[in-house]
Amino acid sequence: MDPPKKHKSRRTTKTTEISFLPQLKQATEPGGRNQVEELKARLQPLARHPRYGSALDLSDSTLRKWLNYAGNSVVFAAAKIRKSLEFKWRMHIADMISGQYTPNKLLCDYYSGGLCGADKQGSPVYYELLGTLDMEGIILSVRRDDLIKFKIYQHEAIRKYLQLLSKETGRTIDTILIVVDMLNCKKTNLWGPSLRLWAEITEILQDLYPGLVKEVLIINPPPMYLEIYLALRPYLKRSTLNLIRVFGYNFLKYLEERIPKHLIPAYLGGYKCDSDNNPHCFQDLNWLDHVPTWLRLTCPTMHADTMDVTVLAGQQHVLEHVVPMKQSRLKWEFFTISEPIIMVIYLNSLREKNSIVKEASLTMDNIHRVGELQCPVAGRYYLVLDNCKNLARNVTVSWKVAVIPPAKIPCKMSLKPIGDSINFFRPIGDKENELRRESELKALYSIPKTGAA
Questions:
Q1: Which GO terms describe its cellular component (predicted)?
Q2: Starting from the edge strand earliest in sequence, which strands make up the sheet with 379-386, in order?
Q3: HSE on the CB side for 245, CA within 13 Å?
């Protein structure tokens, strides 16, 4: 073996690796200019789309956020943008922007929190009063879709506000700071349906508005905070987990590092008050903490015809309804569901699998909690609550089922005469009128006169 040749081949390999490294670094640079231009070029056909083109934002700051969210992959970023535009179109978010959407009044009145002040960079600060929020009362009072639309409506209003701030200040302001106050957080906040709904809302907002939140500060965490965090952690992206900061009761010094003290609400230790020196800033923050019982959909006075059923572990509950006419609607509404359960609707038979008309997995925060079935044929419809897969717990259900006939019922009244010779549908003729008049006169003259001698 010749030693100089060995040494020469080693130096050649080393030189090749060094010349390749700068090219790799330049191609994978986060949010690089070449990636932004490539993503913008890939989205040009989508910008000309008649449905999604008006909602597409091709600004460099927005595209950099999508690239960071997609791990600096242009292909994944373009796919996520397309997916978010499709979801916004299905949820009619364009109506929210144009002002045609009116949010649920109960959510506007009883959803705690709001925007209050700004941080040192000029970004607005949103306070999420999680300990004050009556999430159980809200879930029992409004539909799941209304709450999701309300949160999207909030974020769209915040985006519009950020655009106005950018025009007023002359610099780009496209992020917000979130402060989650968990003071007075109780065990009701660990209610299963509320945690599952929070996880779904968080996942949707992460996919629709990447990079909108610069940091999430959690203050006054209760002892049960770890359980809440472990329940929500599987639904949080890694980029979102990196934004979360948890502070104990000495949170004020950390807030002062990010927010000027005169813009921190006075109840948290700052100087910001209302015009009447109220430390809770009622003019900016909503503090209503309890949804009245009479507003809940489970109020017994509003739904007196509900059925309370307990389905034993490993058992089924069958409810039979006779639908006399086709095109009728079988409508159901669940008010309380203690555990997840499966609902199956059979037609005319419980034994054949081909007779299954509809099947859905039900939870308290599920979209199938309220629904209906257009009955294609008349017959017997069996509604089965199946708890066979749950061998540990019973399921308590409060629900209501009704059969609604079709709006236009076909008239099939017979026009055949009733009896042998009398036709009750034939109009009265002149001859019959004369006979009636004669019979009335006979009856009149046949009455004996009183007081005769």
A1: cytoplasm
A2: 316-323, 379-386, 341-347, 356-362
A3: 14
Q: CB neighbours (10 Å) of residue 261?
A: 12
pLDDT bin (cut points 50, 70, 90) of residue 339 is: confident
Looking at residue 239, its pLDDT comes to 80
Is this structure's pTM higher than 0.70? no
Provide the sign of the torsion angle of the four alpha carbons 41, 45, 51, 53, taken in this order.
positive
Query: How far is residue 136 from each of residues 107, 188, 196, 240, measured CA to CA in Å?
Result: 13, 7, 12, 25
Cα distance between residue 365 and residue 197, in whole Å: 6
Backbone angles phi, psi at 180, to 5 degrees: -100, 110
**Residue 126: φ, ψ to 5°:** -105, 125
Residues 6+ apart with CB under 8 A from 107: 138, 142, 146, 147, 150
Phi, psi of 303 (to 5 degrees): -130, 75
Angle at alpha carbon of residue 215, lines to 213 and 220, rounded to 5°: 125
pLDDT score of 109 more than 70: yes
198-243 pLDDT tens trace:
878 888 888 888 888 999 999 988 887 887 788 778 778 888 888 8
Query: Alpha-carbon torsion 173, 63, 148, 225, what sign?
Result: negative
Query: Could you tell me if 92 and 101 are in contact, meaning their C-beta atoms sit under 8 angstroms apart?
Result: yes
**158 close to 126: Cβ distance less than 8 angstroms:** yes
CA distance 223 to 203: 25
Write out the two tokens for 444. Answer: 């009149």
Asked if 313 and 375 touch (Cβ cutoff 8 Å), the reply is no
Q: What is the DSSP letter of 103?
A: -
Residue type at position 419: G
The 10 Å Cβ neighbour count of residue 274 is 15
